[in-house]
Amino acid sequence: MQHDLVSVESLSAADVMNLIHLAHAFKAGASLTPVRPTYAMNLFFENSTRTHTSFEMAEKRLGMQVLSFDAGHSSVTKGESLLDTLKTIQAIGVDIAVVRHPENGFYQAVLDAQLTMGLANAGDGSGQHPSQSLLDMMTIYEEFGRFEGLTVGIVGDLAHSRVARSNMMLLTRLGARVIFGGPAAWYPADFATYGPHVEIDALVAQVDVMMLLRVQHERLTAETETTFEAGNYHNDYGLTCERAARLNPNAIIMHPAPVNRGVEMASELVECAQSRIFPQMTNGMYMRMAILTEMLLAQGLMNPTDVEALR
Ligand code: CP
């Protein structure tokens, strides 16, 4: 892996498996520390609970110093660009910046500037969410020990989902079959390359992994939002208790969260025996430790022998 992680497109199957093995080693109790004091800053221009907190926890568990950043009180409010903000914190000594931003592909200008500091994309608009996708791969591998031969249903607000976009790319690269569900109008044309769109009742009987997506009200158009009705959505496209009863008994239920309980899935299914929603969050912290470790290694800030021993 390189010293940036902005999209899953740059990851080979071997890169993903190395990250999964490293994350599992951390989960089993392994620890690593950088070769010198290192500094991280998490710059979130969109709200977050899981991604922000688990990156910060991962940084602290790796012994990094975490500098605070508050977008609303930063010089971005005076018109400073994201690129100039990142150049500034690099000049001050930050080694890794973790950035969530509403603009798709915000990272391209940063990559073009060839900063020496590492950049982790914590979600860009409806573009990519690589760390979420990698923790999802870890959770699936933990359950099944393989990707080949698995069928994964990705259901919901596909049009706005950076999680769906990253996951369809990694799952197919790793050998899984992807099928999509949810409103047909929310099935982007470019998703067809990765898998077909089917009705949810046909989908539930086929899947090993049932992955629900949040309806992203903050990204719906005003027209779509006024015609949206939660109960109708749940009945037409959601994982109801009746549909969940028709899942394969070995199938697991995933959701990147936050969950709109009673909309994309019945509230009681969030904590059911087949749900892996909270284990996904736990795995997220370990996977982010693995991602940060590889980024630090690429900057010469981790001992290669120590990292290799855990992969
Ligand atoms: N899954 C996810 O990205 O959650 P947050 O928005 O809380 O970070």
From TrEMBL:
Pfam families (UniProt xref): OTCace (PF00185), OTCace_N (PF02729)
Claim: Secreted is one of the keywords in the record: no
Domain Aspartate/ornithine carbamoyltransferase Asp/Orn-binding as annotated: residue spans: 148-293
GO biological process: 'de novo' pyrimidine nucleobase biosynthetic process; 'de novo' UMP biosynthetic process; amino acid metabolic process
Entry binding sites for carbamoyl phosphate: 50-51, 100, 129, 132, 257-258
Function: Catalyzes the condensation of carbamoyl phosphate and aspartate to form carbamoyl aspartate and inorganic phosphate, the committed step in the de novo pyrimidine nucleotide biosynthesis pathway.
Oligomer and partners: Heterododecamer (2C3:3R2) of six catalytic PyrB chains organized as two trimers (C3), and six regulatory PyrI chains organized as three dimers (R2).
Name assigned to this protein: Aspartate carbamoyltransferase
Organism, as annotated: Levilactobacillus bambusae
